[in-house]
Amino acid sequence: MADNELLGYIKRVKKMGHNDQTIVEHLKKHGYPEHIIDDAFNQLNKKLDLLFIIMIGLVSVLVILGGIFLFSKIKSMNLFAPNPICLETNISIYQIDTQSSACIFADSSRIQLMIENTGQKDIEKLDFIIAGTKTKMHDALIDLQIKPTDVFPKVINYNPDEYGDFKSITIKPFVKDNDKLISCQAIEIKELRKC
Question: Which domain holds residue 11?
């Protein structure tokens, strides 16, 4: 193990701008054995490695704490809260004799739905995302005025060759708030009966 005097000397001359090779040659000229010199550099590098690891650890902890603090501030500002108008907006799939009206034709070419406005606001737009095993398709109905308790029928042409077997349908309602369309909570259908 190298003594503190040698370690201090190496640190000082490094700070003065000398490179490791120059320092090693100088120490060899002054009688230091190579294994003592190597040991001294290894000790200094281990200390630097440890300092580096500690610094990375501290920075990581500060970033995590900063993220938690920032997230709590954003959350307290209710940026993730739903628009209040959406609290009065709800849709569901209409039930016929306790059976869902959502169905797919035998050849899988069409999907039929009856969407009920079970909320308290008029539905102005409906977005449909139909996921198949191959890809998704998007459909939308705009300029609607589905009043509360109204039922709206929808038939979607579906090409199983293009989209694959049916996986799910996501239906998202939109309501107006001061002439601006607001997206509200979607519903998802994962099973369709045969029509």
Answer: 4-76
Residue 158's H or E segment, with its range, is: none
Q: Based on the domain organization, do 54 and 95 belong to the same domain? A: no
The pair of three-digit structure tokens given for residue 123, joined into one six-digit string: 């539905």
Cα-atom radius of gyration of the chain, to the nearest Å?
A: 34
**60-85: pLDDT as tens digits:** 888 988 888 777 766 555 455 567 88
Contact yes or no for 184/172 (Cβ under 8 A): yes
Q: Which two tokens stand for residue 99?
A: 């059976």
- What is the domain count for the chain? 2
Alpha helix ranges (H) inside the chain: 4-15, 20-29, 34-76, 160-163
**Residue 113 has which token pair?**
């739905």
Question: Tens digits of per-residue pLDDT, 20-29?
Answer: 888 888 888 9
Reported as type and span, the H/E element at residue 188 is strand 187-189
Both tokens assigned to 43: 């000790």
